[in-house]
UniProtKB/TrEMBL annotation:
PANTHER family: VACUOLAR PROTEIN SORTING-ASSOCIATED PROTEIN 53 HOMOLOG, VACUOLAR SORTING PROTEIN 53. This is Vps53 N-terminal domain-containing protein. It comes from the Eukaryota. The lineage of its organism: Eukaryota, Metazoa, Ecdysozoa, Arthropoda, Hexapoda. It holds the Pfam family Vps53_N. InterPro entries: Vps53 (IPR039766), Vps53_N (IPR007234). Residues 2-132 form the Vps53 N-terminal domain.
Length: 203
């Protein structure tokens, strides 16, 4: 695909904002195609789809084909019950246009993961600075009731950010980029535990 070749040549020019923008536009285009076309010609480009249509037509000319026999078959009800009992549960149908263009962006989603890494690093540093300000001498006059539990609001903020990242990543890919995201999550959970949780333990 020409788009893949162009991206490979200009990989250094791709930033996360541009990447997410083009993925969103491409996904919208694929959804538009799915609403307007069936995509039957994409299912088999080697012509096997056409062959299956011809076979269906030839079978319909067969006088012994159950699908064309008049509804006087005494075993019709039994056959219908058996077919219903063996039919698989309905599954979500993915159109042939799903990922037909946007899949070429997946090798570059490491740019997105690296951007999340930087954002999480900045977020942890902000949490550390806020924690230092709360324990500064100017705030030392504020007394806590004995036996009260100190709740770190940054903990909730961190997991809300994690949730947003997971939702966004699943919309982009559930493959290797998702594994990269889990590694990044592990890294900053350790950072949070060392820089904030341990420092707030009772002494």
């Amino acid at each position: 695909m020409e788009l893949s070749k162009l991206m490979a040549k200009r990989k250094s020019d791709i930033d996360v904002k541009l990447l997410l923008f083009v993925i969103q536009r491409t996904s919208n285009f694929e959804n538009l195609l799915s609403r307007r076309f069936t995509g039957i010609t994409l299912e088999d480009v080697d012509g096997s789809a056409l062959k299956s249509k011809i076979n269906k037509v030839s079978q319909s000319l067969n006088p012994f084909d159950d699908s064309v026999v008049d509804g006087n078959n005494p075993f019709k009800e039994d056959l219908e019950e058996e077919s219903n009992s063996l039919s698989p549960a309905p599954t979500m149908q993915i159109t042939p246009f799903h990922g037909i263009v946007s899949k070429c962006f997946e090798p570059y989603l490491n740019i997105y993961i690296e951007s999340l890494d930087k954002n999480l690093n900045d977020l942890i540093e902000r949490f550390v600075q806020d924690s230092k300000q709360q324990h500064s001498p100017s705030n030392s006059n504020v007394t806590q009731p004995e036996g009260s539990n100190v709740i770190l609001s940054s903990c909730a903020d961190l997991f809300v950010f994690y949730k947003k990242c997971m939702v966004q990543c699943t919309q982009l890919s559930t493959g290797q980029p998702m594994l990269g995201l889990t590694t990044t999550f592990q890294k900053y959970l350790r950072e949070y535990a060392i820089k904030l949780l341990q420092n707030n333990l009772p002494k």
